[in-house]
Specification:
Length: 208
């Protein structure tokens, strides 16, 4: 019956080694998947949030310049109308670049409102200082809302990245624990095999 026990030991050892190999492969796959997801989160944070925020800040800067010009003009824009027109024209490529980033549904709504305000601003430059101030204030308010959205979305992305990192850490710890258990099983099998071999040699000696 000892040969049967030896065969069983070999079968268990083979199964343990196979499990160990599969676990290492699975752990490697999980690590690569988590790494890829974290990289995607960082890319999204940069391309769709930090870049978008840069465009928003540039537009805010231009609108503030327009507001300062309007405030300084008192009752009539006069020659400053051309300067405001140039600033508004300069905002177009910036807003187009912002539009090309990945916008959320909420951003789409706010950006559409902003585009309408900017268009209205361009067509109402000669209709009075009060209307110009109203348009600058509306544009600044919308840009501040868009900036706040960038912050909210950035926090969500960072939370997702932290969750992925924590999940990866737990998976690695679990894999390490299982590997240790498998190695202990293999060690026990080797020890049992040696004990059995020693016992066989002792029995053979007494028989002689």
């Amino acid at each position: 019956m000892k040969w049967t026990y030896s065969v069983e030991n070999k079968s268990v050892a083979s199964l343990a080694l196979l499990s160990l190999c599969l676990l290492v492969l699975f752990s490697n796959y999980i690590d690569r998947d988590h790494t890829s997801n974290v990289k995607n989160s960082i890319t999204t944070l940069y391309e769709d949030r930090l870049v978008a925020e840069t465009h928003i800040l540039r537009m805010i800067n231009d609108i503030y310049q327009i507001k300062e010009i309007v405030n300084a003009s008192r009752s009539n824009l006069g020659n400053e109308e051309n300067r405001i027109g140039d600033l508004l024209s300069g905002i177009h490529p910036i807003s187009d670049a912002y539009r090309n980033t990945k916008l959320t549904a909420k951003e789409e709504v706010k950006f559409t409102e902003l585009s309408k305000i900017l268009t209205q601003f361009e067509t109402s430059l000669s209709k009075g200082i009060a209307l110009d101030l109203e348009n600058t204030n509306k544009a600044l308010a919308l840009l501040n809302e868009l900036s706040a959205i960038q912050l909210e979305e950035s926090k969500l992305i960072m939370n997702q990245a932290e969750t992925l990192f924590s999940s990866s850490k737990v998976s690695a710890q679990f894999a390490s624990a299982v590997i240790i258990v498998i190695l202990l099983v293999l060690q026990a099998l080797v020890f049992t095999s040696k004990t059995l071999s020693s016992s066989n040699q002792t029995s053979a000696h007494y028989l002689n």
